[in-house]
Each structure stands twice: as structure tokens, then as C-alpha cells.
Amino acid sequence: MKKVIILGCGGFVGSHLTDRMLASGEYHIEGWDISFDKISQHLDNPNLSSHQRYIDRDSTFEEIEPYVEGAHAVISLAAVCTPAQYVSSPVKTIRSNFIDAYALIDLCAKHRSWLVHTSTCEVYGRTLSSYVPTDNYDNPDLYEQREDETPLVVGPTKNHRWSYSTAKQLFERYIYAHNVENGMPFTIIRPYNWFGARMDFIPGRDGEGVPRVLACFMTALLDDQPLQLVDGGLAYRTITYIDDAVDALMLMLENPKGSQNQVFNVGNRGGEVTMKELALMMRELAAEITGKEKFRDHPIEEITGEKFYGEGYEDCDRRVPDVSKAESRLGWKAKTDLRETLRITMTHYFEQYGREKGLHPSQAK
Ligand code: NAD
Ligand code: UDP
To answer: How many domains, the chain?
Structure first.
């Protein structure tokens, strides 16, 4: 039995990883989170020890230290990671993604424990193409994101949307520094818009605030409100199914030789879509899943980034991962296409929140 620590095991990624690790029967998890609602079905499993705590720099690491020594891996997922919060609460975002978290790196360095950290593709920031008005994505060298080559390019400090990207970048650099100076093994993962069940709350039902785009569009579909396209919905994202992403994480944990001391993009190149195309596809799928034809004409409206998120918003224009490293070192490639990813994810959302409005898939005619 391999012992692992997971910080943030109760979140979207953590809950899917916990499902998979416990199903394998090969891991014992020491899991930390504020909430275990998404993994409540596992709380009696003897291979999960749950620690319901708020992790901060000063208090929690004393408590975590005894488990770090001798752990197969320390997996760090806990973070503030929704764009609305990067703009509305940049202090909280930087504290969560660096200040409250960096002591974990010191602990892993002290014990030479393997730190597996989920960073973000947002560390790349904007593409170089976006700064060349005439480029129009003609040259992949200016937009394709390669882990060990591509520069990390973000906007000015006054656009505090980059609070998250830069805190994550400093975290990566501090990990790397401890590897170079103290031999701490690490794996850094840069997720590309992982989508799946339990991804985010629906405002007014099980959370408050502005979630990520999938849950924003689902809220609008459930509540008969227009889908809102920020700045025309021209930004691209590369959407990856959570089960494929968890495959990559499991392969990393099973293969330290292939995965240690590396940064990996984990994304589905075939899942690239603009937010406008995403909205159109989700309207169609909503009709197919619920049997309600009205969704095909569901209203869509445009809104500025500043109005939607507040002052200080700036967007990533495009995120195209080079995934050849994950392929050659781990034998990993995403298997699930965009439409299927959305169908599975939206079906879960309609099952969870749709019954009251006759939108549960079982109510489809
Ligand atoms: P999530 O918000 O669903 O999960 C994060 C979990 O961490 C939550 O359960 C939260 O309660 C917990 N947490 C946060 N701060 C904590 C604290 N101080 N103490 C205790 N628990 C705390 O997010 P997610 O989508 O599961 O993302 C996991 C990681 O992957 C994050 O580091 C995120 O930056 C990174 N990431 C995810 C995506 C994606 O597509 N989901 C994309 C880029 C990066
Ligand atoms: N977005 C949108 N409408 C919404 C919510 C988000 O058009 O209701 C856009 C947002 O401006 C960005 C993209 O969708 O271009 C993805 O946003 P998300 O919140 O999922 O996070 P990100 O991918 O930026 O981390």
C-alpha cells in the first residue's frame, strides 16, 4: 500500500483522483480539505484518513509534517482557482496560491519527499501571437505552449487577473529552486480546462459567486437566463475530460522515473473551442439531453469583461498545449472528444440540478 498525502482532496480534481485511487486498492490517502461533501461516500473507507482543516502557512504544516516523511507522494491541489476571484480577491488568490502554500515545498525539501503539484496552463498567460496584430495565429512557435521552451507572458500589474498566474508561476519556480539546491523530487502539472461532474457549484443552489464557464453556462440554461459571452466569446480554451486527466495523474504516480523532475501539460489538443462555439454546442446538447427543443434557440448575449468580472480583468487568448512530453514519457494521450466530454458533464449537471424544472434527463420525452 502506497501512502499519499492529498491537499484539496475534496475539490473537483481531488474528488475524482480520490475515487480512482481508492478503487485501485493500492493507495492509502491522508486527505486535507475544508469540505468533504464531494467524497462523502468514501469517509468510512479505511484507506482514506480525512483531516477537515483550513490549510494555512502557520498552523497546518506542523500537523502535516509527520505524514510527509516516508510518503510515496505529496499531492497539492488546494487553491483558489476561479477567475472571478482573481479579480475580486487578488490578496486571497495570492495568499492561497503562494503564501499559504509555500511551506509545503519547504517540508517536502526537508524530507526529500516527492511533491506533485497542480499548477495551471494559465502560467503561460497570453500567447506571443496576441501581441503581433498581424500574426493571426500563423506561426505555432508564437502560440503553441511547450513546457520547457515557451516564455510566460502576462499583462501589466494593474490587470490583477494575473494574480493567480503569477502566484502559480512563483510556486513553480520555488519548487524548481528546491530541486536544484536540495534535490527535492517534483512533478508539476499544467491542467488545460479539465471538465467533468462536480466541477463547480451553481450560484444560488450550492454556492455563491461566479464559477468557471461551464457552471456559468449551466446556471443560465437551468434558470432560463441568457448565456453571457465575455468580450464576444472570442477567447479559445482547450477542454479536457477529467477522467483523461486523472489517467495522466495515475500514470505519473505509478511511474516516478518517467514523471519526476518534469513539468507536464495535461490537455486535449482536439478539445479546442472558442467560448462562442462552446455556448452554441452546449445549447444543442442541452436540447438533446433534456429533450427540450427550446434550448436550441436559448438566448445568448455579449458582455464586456469589465462588466462581468470587474476592473482588472484581462483574458488568456488561446491555450494550445504541446503534449508530446506526456505522450513520450508516460504513454498518455487524451481519449475523450469535446462533444462527449460536454455530454457527460452536462448530463451530470442536469441530473443534479434539473429535476425541479423538469430538466432531469429521465424526464426527457
Ligand atoms: P477546486 O476549487 O474544485 O478544489 C480545490 C479544493 O481545495 C477545494 O475543495 C477547496 O476546499 C480546497 N482548499 C482550497 N484552499 C484550501 C485551504 N486553504 N485549506 C484547505 N482546503 C483548501 O479546484 P480544482 O478544479 O479541483 O483544482 C485543483 C487544482 O488544479 C488547483 O490547484 C487548480 O489551480 C489547478 N487547476 C485546475 C484546473 C481545472 O481545469 N480544474 C485548471 C488549472 C489549474
Ligand atoms: N466566460 C464567458 N462567459 C461566462 C463565464 C466565462 O464567456 O459566463 C469566458 C471567460 O471570459 C474566459 C472563458 O470563458 O474567456 C473561460 O473562463 P473560465 O471561468 O472557465 O476560466 P479560465 O479558463 O479563464 O481559467
So the answer is: 1
Residue 188 belongs to what domain range? 79-363
Beta-carbon contacts of residue 121 (< 8 Å; ≥ 6 apart): 145, 190, 191, 192, 193, 238, 265, 267, 319, 321
Point out the catalytic residue in the list 164, 192, 236, 349: 164
**Closest ligand to residue 121's CA:** 1
Does any domain span residue 263?
yes
Best probe residue, ligand 1, of 18, 19, 30, 33 (max atoms within 8 Å of C-beta) = 33
pTM: 0.97
Q: Is residue 33 part of a domain?
A: no
Measured by CA distance, the residue closest to atom 25 of ligand 2 is 83
Residue nearest to atom 4 of ligand 2 (CA): 213
Is 137 catalytic? The answer is no
Which residue's alpha carbon is nearest to atom 5 within ligand 2? 213
CA 11–ligand 1 middle distance (angstroms): 6
DSSP-assigned beta bridge partners for residue 51: 32
Per-residue pLDDT of the chain (365 residues; tens, 9 = 90+): 999 999 999 999 999 999 999 999 999 999 999 999 999 999 999 999 999 998 887 777 788 999 999 999 999 999 999 888 988 999 999 999 999 999 999 999 999 999 999 999 999 999 999 999 888 899 999 999 999 999 999 999 999 999 999 999 999 999 999 999 999 999 999 999 999 999 999 999 999 999 999 999 999 999 999 999 999 999 999 999 999 999 999 999 999 999 999 999 999 999 999 999 999 999 999 999 999 999 999 999 999 999 999 999 999 999 999 999 999 999 999 999 999 999 999 999 999 999 999 999 998 87
- What is the tally of helices (H) and strands (E) in the chain? 13, 15
